[in-house]
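hey can u check if this looks right to u? its 119 residues, i copy pasted from the old doc so theres a chance i mangled smth
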Amino acid sequence: LLDNEVLEANIHLFNEILTQAHFPKEVYERVKKQMIASIQERQQSPGSVADDAMFAYVFNHHPYAHPVMGEVKNINQITEKDLQDFYHQFYVAKNATIVLVGAIDVDEAKRISEVISQR
């Protein structure tokens, strides 16, 4: 935070991430394939299968009953629109907690926070 040029560039980048996220199709498809591969790999581990069965039994209809990584059928149902909708619902200033650490004073911290949380 001491180098003003670096600070301003990073504030701009962070603001762009929070306010103008992009979900390129090739990245979306790559991550989706990685998640499915991880789930399938997990299904080959007897311990993981047993853990999933135990959580399903113990927690029944509670969200804890479902695998944290999800299931292949659910991952396949997620669309790019779902990502955009989730982003627009949850990645908003009112949900943000901004924590700044470094050699800055309160006024500078407020300025940075306001810039980051702008829409």
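The chain has six helices and no strands.
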